[in-house]
Amino acid sequence: MIIDQSAASWFKSSKSANASECVEIAFLGDSANNVGIRDSKNPGGPALMFSGDQWDCFLSSGIWQR
């Protein structure tokens, strides 16, 4: 799947407290039903893409709190 990231508004995760561990998130696509995650220190680098359902599953899993 190819998703245009050019108009994305990336923002830092509230869990990125330390400047050396910054994760940015953006809601992507026409319906904003896709979520991108990238390393803020490398904004031109790769980004992980999730569907809205996948993102909801990730958040509800609690794995990000470890």
Keywords:
66 residues; alpha+beta; four-stranded antiparallel β-sheet
Blueprint (SSEs and pairs):
Layout: E1 11-12, E2 23-28, E3 34-39, E4 47-51, H1 52-61
Antiparallel strand pairs: 1-2, 2-3, 3-4
Strands ordered across the widest β-sheet? 1-2-3-4
Low-confidence stretches: none
How many E-type strands?
4
Shape: globular
Radius of gyration: 12 Å
Number of helical elements: 1
SS-based class: alpha+beta
Helix content: 10-25%
User: What are the secondary-structure elements, in order, as H or E?
Assistant: EEEEH
How would you characterize the largest beta sheet? Answer: 4 strands, antiparallel
On the 0 to 100 scale, the average pLDDT is 79
Strand % is 25-35%
**Cα end-to-end separation:** 29 Å
Describe this structure in words.
The protein is α+β, with helices and mostly antiparallel strands. Helices cover 15% and strands 29% of the residues. It contains 1 helix and 4 strands. It has one helix at residues 52-61, and strands at 11-12, 23-28, 34-39, 47-51. A hairpin with a 7-residue loop joins strand 3 (34-39) and strand 4. The longest helix is centred in the C-terminal third of the chain and has 10 residues, at 52-61. The termini are far apart.
